[in-house]
Amino acid sequence: MDNGMIRKYQKAKMYAEERNRFKFQSFTVEIDGTNNPHHVTYDAGTWQCDCDYFIGRGECTHTMALEMILKDMLDLVEA
Ligand SMILES: [Zn+2]
Questions:
Q1: What pTM was computed for the model?
Q2: How far is the CA of 22 from the centre of ligand 1 (A)?
Q3: Under the phi-then-psi rule, with left for phi > 0, alpha for psi from -120 to 50, and beta for the rest, what region is 26?
């Protein structure tokens, strides 16, 4: 790596440690559930999951697990 690239790498490392700089806007994740895989989408603060529990509740173990992983990196809409 040349010096320019080393400086970029160091800055990237600093950004990666400052998680609250990042705000995920939208994404889709497949979660390997206990019985079946589940598909979760997140778009502008709104969750969707294809599991039965999510229907009518608006949250489930899959969305809660993602909130734990992505803590401080989501713009969550207050319910
Ligand atoms: Zn779910």
A1: 0.82
A2: 24
A3: beta
